Request: fold
Amino acid sequence: MRDADFFRRWMVATAASVEREADRLTELDSPIGDADHGSNLLRGFTAVRTALDAEPPDTPGAVLQLAGRTLISTVGGASGPLYGTLLRRTGKELGDGSEVGDEELREALRAGVDAVARLGGAAPGDKTMLDAWTPAIDALATSYRAAADAAEEGAEATIPLVARKGRASYLGERSIGHQDPGATSSALLLEALADTADADGAGAGGAS
Ligand code: ADP
Ligand code: MG
Reply:
């Protein structure tokens, strides 16, 4: 079972990863966007870390809902409301239990990703963050690491796609040949989740 601290550590690991990769995310957002994805997420996840430190929520659902609200209020770009919705919806699905199981988390994440698809009107293949999240949710049935790998592959598979949503869609065919920044950052979130789960597994046996 995963407690609030697991989710807090996931968000902190994501913030650290976004900090390391911010320049690359912004570079990816240059040819097919407005070169702000790294700075958007850096601002957002830094604020998430601050909010979680200030008043650590005591349930998994509350951690993700606070993170989602914080992203919505601090990130101006399209990715803020989209990631915010993902985490808020996932958090709501988790309810107010003090611990959640991995299958429960998988179903909650699926609901979160569905909410992103509804909000943004995108489908897999449109060269958005959904191209990382959709295969990752399926692979979660295997393991967190499999999900992270699937997200990474999904992000790389956006390179030959034509963007149909978001700023990159303004470029039409000229969006071909570039990896989607939001799919790339989504792979970072899933990698942080896998790392957090691995760290748990290395602790006292049976804790998870
Ligand atoms: P903005 O496009 O407003 O500058 P960001 O640069 O922070 O926002 O984020 C861009 C990313 O947001 C894209 O790479 C894409 O993955 C994601 N995105 C944009 N529009 C949508 C949408 N309608 N549905 C899903 N994801 C989207
Ligand atoms: Mg942008």
User: Anything to note?
Assistant: The chain has a mean pLDDT of 95. The two ends are 5 Å apart (CA to CA). The pocket of magnesium ion (ligand 2) is lined by residues 29, 33-34, 36-37, 77, 167 (CB under 6 Å).
